[in-house]
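User: My advisor asked me to double-check a structure prediction for DUF418 domain-containing protein before group meeting. I don't want to rely on an old file, so could you generate it fresh from this sequence?
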Amino acid sequence: MEQGAWRPVTPGQRIEAMDVLRGFALFGILLMNIEWFTSPMVGRADGIDPGLHGLARGLDALTYVFASGKFWTLFSLLFGMGFAVMQARADAAGRPFVPVYLRRTVGLLVIGLAHAWLLWAGDILVAYALAALLLMAFARAPVAGLWAGGAALYLSIAGLMALSALVAGAPGGWADNPERLRDATEQLALQAAEIRAYGAGSYAEATAFRLRFFVEYLPSGVLFMLPMALGMFLVGAGLVRSGAMADPVAHRALFRTLAFVCGPAGLLLTIVGLAIDPQPDMHGADIASALWAMTLHMIGAPLMSLGYVGLVVLAPRRGHAGLAVLAPAGRMALTLYLMQSLVCTWVFYGYGLGLWGTMGRVAQVVLVLAIFCAQLAFAHAWMARFRLGPVEWLWRAFTYLRWPPMRHVPPSHSVRP
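Assistant: Sure, here is a fresh prediction for DUF418 domain-containing protein from the sequence you gave:
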């Protein structure tokens, strides 16, 4: 590459552990989201479904403990890592970073809006794009500042949840507020509209409800998600800027701490939260217990996602060879994330196969495995021929204002004398 040029990262420059983690996160995201594809998002209670028994209950519990909340935080860590890698490459090339990064963020926002309005209301890309704009304020922060700021931002929401639990448990608190009944009634009406739109409605009716959901839930969703997403972005950026992701051997102690301290601590907090309330419900009889359970789960989730990072990076050589099968999926994670929404809404919604509300928990997990295995096979076939996933290719073209090469460039062979 010529002196001073700044181009998109090439396959040889990628940090494979990040691609493996993205592929792993894709599986976890689908495992977590599958319930949201087949049942209402409005008024949904957290935790383990009390109506399940046997294998279904076991799978539900395992998903809640090991997947729920852990993989969007893992994706957030990876987003922050990508930001730091992109900035480092711009600095090395001596090129301005902000214009390119802003185009990248605007492109993600457009993709997220299209996803939320046209495919699935459970989109997280819009929140990521908005948090990514705020990430610029920390572009020159030191590593310690990134980690401290990230923890403070994420824990600010957990702190508000804990404060809410204290208020709810006090005499005359939220639990005794008559407004709760009115809110619950309104939510039931909205839930019924969601079931009609997605379970039996046409594509136009489903899209109309997606727009309604987006408008009604965006303000509260942004206020809730932005600090947490931005906090995880900062922690991820710190992992790259510290040099840990590029040279894990030199930072083995850090990754051991993540794997064997953060991970188990997060698991313990999650289990304690389950013991307090196995199905936290903000409209139930015991709001205080629900809020305490949700607070502990919220704190445990990023610790477990950091534990997953540590375990993947520390995996022995034989383990790395097995995990590497996930890397092609990680290189086209955005395409596959959107594909999951396309496939699952077609399977469950009324304008597709119409299986809304009919698939049990065990069958859902089997479907997740089938979809993800098919995605892995597709990713391997696609990435063997092309440098980028199709959505990544369009996103990168918009980011750099030029069409990137799509096919692999065959290596040049020099003739030995």
